[in-house]
Amino acid sequence: MRIDRTDAAHAACLALVGRLDAAWSESVAAALEDAIRAGRPRIELDMRETTFVSSVGIGTILRALTRFRAVGGTLVIVGASDPVRDMLRVAKLDALLGLRAGPARPAAARESRPIGDGWTGSIERTAAPDVPVPLARVARGSVQAGPHAVALGHVALAPDEPSAAGLYGDGLVAGGTAVVFPADAPRPDCMASTDAGTVAVQVRDALVASAEPSWHGHFEASGTGAAVVTVSSIAGELVRTLGGPVAFVACGECAGAFGAWARSSPDRWNAATGAMTTDDLRRAIRFAGEPMHRGETMVAVAFASGDATGPSLHAHVAVTGYRPMPQQARTVAAAGQVLAEQPLRAVMHALRAADGTESSFVRGSLWAFRTEGGPA
What we know:
Largest sheet: 12 strands, mixed
Number of helices: 6
Strand content: 35-45%
Shape: elongated
Number of strands: 23
């Protein structure tokens, strides 16, 4: 079998030429998984040159259909040979898969333009007001993890400061969900807001802003090989495009998470990190030796400003089990749902090494708004 793929703004299109049977099911499954990860809202299968399809082949398509529908995507067969049509009718699956004579008319696509650092993307205004909002620096206090709150710092999942003692770790708030890796816990944890109310968390040394995002966009690494979209390059482009300091949330496929996280609860540190000796830092903080968790889903929360010399950036990242982020996910709540529903792998303060190593994406979506002042 030959598998040909072409990508358009509205869809990933796969042409399957030859026999789709058990011998080729793994190859087709891998191609469908790559198409799902591409983030297009629609996958189109052209099976006009598929000479045979077995029950195993049908099962491969059905598994991809179920997975893609779970994240709001649409998988459609846009053309089929007679053997494929007959098999689908026998299995009573022709209607389920949306069999039709030819490809659907593409939806109007937003322009995707090159914006530097080896990646492409698009960004557009939402209906929210595009006005700078206050950026708060919270040394110690409580933060409401509402649907539009964006925060990063040391976080504790506790209703008040006394009950938060010893529970702090590196964390972030996005899309109505607060996540943290408590220093003494074996794994990260989270709390999510619901329709019944907003959760409160305790923070130390945090940056906090709250506004409905006025900008929404998508990004994807271009080219081949090791091409990635770094968090700092997203920050730099947003600062340039929006004309000043910004807060943003990015969510997508992780190319590598790189940073540091607390080894002991920060409220028990004897000094701020800037005043610690090297030995104190090693006792207080764990450092990633290299980028981690490639192929999972990563959510970055960041505050950035900048000038001609480049962006000033403060960012935290959280990594979860992989979930596709379709381009039709229009609200930042999609990032919060990923954090709340997928297994959490890591939460860390994002760092940039002297050689340029930093946290980066393969592709994803972003939500941003302007702020009054930046992280510096």
